[in-house]
Amino acid sequence: FCSCSELLHLAVLHTSKLSVYAVSGTAGNVEHGDQYQLRLIYEHHLQRTACNMTYGPFGGITGHHFICIQSMDGMLMFFEQDSYAFGCCLPGFLLPGPLSYCSRTDSFIIVSSTRQVECYRYETLAVTADADIRKDCDKQSKTPGKRLTADWTLVLGEEVLDICVPNTSPTLSSIFVLGERNLFCLKDNGQIRFMKKLEFNPSCFLPYGSVSDDSTNILMGNHNNMLLVYQDVTLKWAAQLSFVPVVIRVANFEKLKGLVVTLNSDGHLQCSYMGTDPSFFTAPKVDSRDINYNEVDKEMKVLQKVIRKVTNTQDTLPRAEKGENISLIAKVSPNLDEVSCAVIPEMNGMSVPSITVKVKVRSSAVVQSPKMTVCVQPPLAVTQDQFVFDSMVKHLYLHVI
Fold first, then answer.
1. Integer Cα distance of 71 and 59 in angstroms
2. Domain that holds residue 345
3. How far is Cα 343 from Cα 380, in angstroms, rounded to an integer?
4. Where does it sit, as one GO cellular component term (predicted)?
5. Of 222, 253, 216, which is closest to residue 240 (Cα–Cα)?
6. So what's the pLDDT on residue 54?
7. Which residue ranges of the chain lie beneath pLDDT 50?
8. For position 143, what pLDDT does the model report?
9. What pLDDT is stored for residue 132 in this prediction?
10. pTM of the predicted model, to two decimals?
11. Tell me, what's the pLDDT at 331?
């Protein structure tokens, strides 16, 4: 971004200005580590409210990068390092969308308000630029020969969250478009290479080249606090996050390679890695010994006998003895009582007869306070229908008359 230096610089886009900083480091003498400072190199005050930006070697230059800023009213502003180059307005503009640059074709990929992907070459944008276009974008459509036309377009039919063109191959470019319900991979001529239907609401993504083959890995975050890793259209890994990411990047530090850097809407930055914590425990070696199979067979037979004996053992609780716990024998006298024992000995001048029934009760177990009830069918009646006994011990006989 700086003409006087080939070092990396930091470009920061504000709503009304573009600032470029130089990052310088100072070795630290304490345990806190090195110190880094930002030094302002230059800045551009913008006449229009900025929305987003992209950078790259516009026009095929080498050694430097130019910056393209998209404004909220649909104007593309180009800056060649510390000077403003030109600007042009997008046709049929309504709302700003994602913006990306493809270095292989030297073209810009945008998404219009009609939900279609449009590609504009840098040469076409530079030719269409006019000095008066900075003040009034409507003059572009009124000026003959200055109509801006897209190199190709592709209708998606859904809102687009982000566009990314990873530099995975110098001979082949892939344009990844993240929609609300689908992930598209396009060729640099606008043809669809593949499409992945998503079953969740994505929040951000990052395509990057695989180190093992020619495929492309994709990190994708969703609104379920999930981080998904795809290899083309195949899901390879899924991890749970503590928040919904809005930006995902892969960072390499001095001793840490491939860290996943995520940022949420509250400005919380997190560096993490995928996988499990490595285990540093090493099992000790077991002393090998010769196995005597005869002794193993003998020990196995002894253990089988013990198991068989345990399974055939009776229950620990004593089983109940067979037969009735209480036996009852009632003996009815064949003759009437000589003296009536009825409750009412006479009724209407006639004597009421009675008969005695002897009941023998035998208990084979201890019974606490047993009760006996006598029931007869009318017109018969009993002198006493309830009997309550004291506790009965085992093999005790009770005689009830």
1. 21
2. 326-400
3. 12
4. membrane
5. 222
6. 94
7. 131-132, 134-135, 138-145
8. 43
9. 42
10. 0.62
11. 85
Inside any domain, residue 79? no
Distance of CA 110 to the CA centre of its chain: 32
Looking at the domain assignment, is residue 186 inside a domain? no
Q: Which residues contact 197 (CB under 8 A, 6 or more apart)?
A: 181, 182
The separation between CA 246 and the C-alpha centre of its own chain, rounded to angstroms, equals: 17
pLDDT reported for residue 368: 78
pLDDT of residue 146: 59
Provide the token pair at 109: 């990929």
> And the tokens for 68?
């393209």
Q: Which residues pair with 269 in a beta bridge?
A: 263
CA-to-CA dists, residue 349 to 58, 345, 346, 352, angstroms: 139, 10, 6, 10
Q: Dig out the tokens for 1 from the structure.
A: 């971004």
Q: How far apart are CA 150 and CA 128, in angstroms?
A: 12
| CA distances to 75, 204, 239, 244, 389 from 226, in Å | 36, 11, 6, 8, 78
Do the beta carbons of residue 399 and residue 359 sit within 8 Å?
yes
User: CA 228, CA 51: separation in Å to the nearest integer?
Assistant: 28
Tell me how many domains the chain contains.
1
In a domain, 178, yes or no: no
**Residue 216, strand partner residues:** 209
Neighbour count for residue 79 (Cβ, 10 Å): 24
Residue type at 118? E
